Please model this.
Amino acid sequence: MKIYIKEEEIKKRVIEIAKDIEKEIGNKEVVFISNLKGSIIFFSDILRNINSENILIDFIATESYTGKESSGEIKIIKDLSLDISGKDVYLVEDIFDTGLTLNTLINYIREVHKPSSIKTVVFLDKPSRRRVNLEVDYVGFVIEDKFVVGYGMDYNEKYRNLPYIALID
Ligand code: IMP
Ligand code: MG
Model:
């Protein structure tokens, strides 16, 4: 296992993103949605660095990968529990890779839950594999086409607890 992004670098970048979002939201009530499971650590680190008393949180879960390959078919396996209709939403995701997951999620949330707006916050961006035409609002790091684990991300459900991003050989 080789370290690809160090814990200190992650901390620094997460604070920068959190402060940008903090400025953007001011005192407005917003809902942060974590796409389980990969985004949980990024999600909680972002949240605890935003100074606001008007943040609600919720969870949704999707499934697309087995091992290192996406099936290309995204299933929603757990839905939101809050009523987010008419609310401003920040959707938090671990990796923006082919983009199929985010694209499916955004369309689903828009159609079914009718928020007033959806912004996207992703920890890693792998632009080389993109298959959809979609822009995200906040990105932690842009990376090469490598399979990474840690900081929430897994290989067959393992390594999510690592506090850094690593390459698996
Ligand atoms: P997309 O639908 O291809 O954009 O893929 C997004 C999902 O694939 C993410 O939510 C991750 O769970 C998973 N994924 C993509 N690349 C990696 C990786 O390098 N390591 C671990 N999971 C990955
Ligand atoms: Mg995964």
